[in-house]
Design brief:
This protein is of the alpha/beta class. The protein has helices at about 10-20, 35-40, 60-65, 85-95, 105-130, 145-150, 155-170, 175-180, 185-195, 210-215, 220-225, 245-255, 270-280; strands spanning about 1-5, 25-30, 45-50, 75-80, 100, 225-230, 235-240, 260-265. Helix 2 (about 35-40) packs parallel to helix 3.
């Protein structure tokens, strides 16, 4: 595999390069973040191992640049760092980091991370060439606000006020309603599920089946905002998601699980907490990001 190491510590880069070359990989080293980005734009690397702090462009900024590109094969990114707090990891993952290696790098840990990277790259390539089994977003769906009014969650006056505010600030209608306390995230998520003709699931009320959780790594669940819940009678995997129309995420989960999935809608914050509990990690806070444009 062709690997780029973006690391300004000469000794660390040399040790890592020798270890990777001994494992049979083709390795390039660049100590400057901006020059590493130039290399990436001109050549195809499938794995990037980058230090957090580098001259001219940090590892996290380099990651953001990579993720903003369209039409390129997936690049797996491992962040080399001494920063290991949950806050640092959450910040890096939000930028698109796939995995972490704490410096100084343990060689056994390096081999394990590379095996994961190779599997994930192969899965990403399969996902890119395989259509998902999830049905397309229905056309002509009713407006979210009207569903909330019909369900008695908000009044017509509150909806009109929220729509007027939406014209001024451009925020999603659900986010506006929640900010005023006129509806809860659960109310909006339930209405959204009705809007797109999918099932709503209150993840607060479920104890996930361990066998289902074991199929999907925590990093994938967190990145895809997806919680494996249980299995249906047809041996399909039930998955709660914030955005059920993230087709790449659904296809990746199907590949990892080895079966088709039934996608259900969950409220964003409750979903983040439930993922943390299912994988026994701190979920942290989540802002509203439900992906309806209504």
């Amino acid at each position: 595999m062709k690997i780029l190491i973006a690391e300004d510590d000469t000794i660390s880069a040399l040790v890592l390069r020798k270890a990777l070359e001994k494992l049979g990989h083709e390795v390039w080293v660049e100590p400057d973040g901006a020059r590493a980005w130039d290399l990436l734009r001109g050549q195809q690397f499938r794995l990037v191992m980058t230090d957090w702090m580098m001259p001219h462009l940090t590892g996290v900024e380099l990651c953001r640049n990579i993720r903003e590109r369209d039409g390129r094969p997936y690049v797996y990114i491992i962040l080399l760092t001494v920063k290991s707090s949950p806050e640092d990891r959450a910040f890096a993952m939000a930028a698109g980091i796939d995995d972490f290696l704490i410096k100084p790098v343990d060689m056994g840990e390096l081999v394990a991370r590379l095996e994961v990277a190779e599997r994930m790259i192969a899965l990403k390539d399969q996902v890119a060439s395989t259509p998902s089994t999830v049905p397309p977003r229905p056309s002509g769906a009713p407006e979210l606000g009207r569903i909330l009014v019909a369900n008695g969650v908000i009044t017509v006056r509150q909806l009109d006020a929220a729509l007027a505010e939406q014209l001024r600030c451009g925020l999603r209608i659900g986010e506006i309603l929640c900010s005023h306390g006129w509806a809860s995230e659960e109310d909006v998520a339930r209405a959204y599920a009705e809007q797109v003709n999918l099932k709503y699931v209150s993840v607060r009320d479920y104890d996930c089946v361990p066998e289902a959780v074991a199929l999907i790594p925590h990093a994938v669940a967190q990145r895809c905002r997806a919680l494996p819940i249980s299995f249906t009678n047809e041996d399909r995997l039930r998955v709660a998601m914030e955005n059920p129309f993230d087709y790449d995420a659904v296809a990746l989960i199907e590949r990892l699980a080895g079966c088709a999935v039934d996608v259900e809608v969950a409220a964003p914050h409750a979903l983040a907490v439930a993922i943390g509990e299912a994988y026994d990690v701190d979920a942290g806070g989540r802002r509203w990001e439900l992906s309806t444009a209504v």
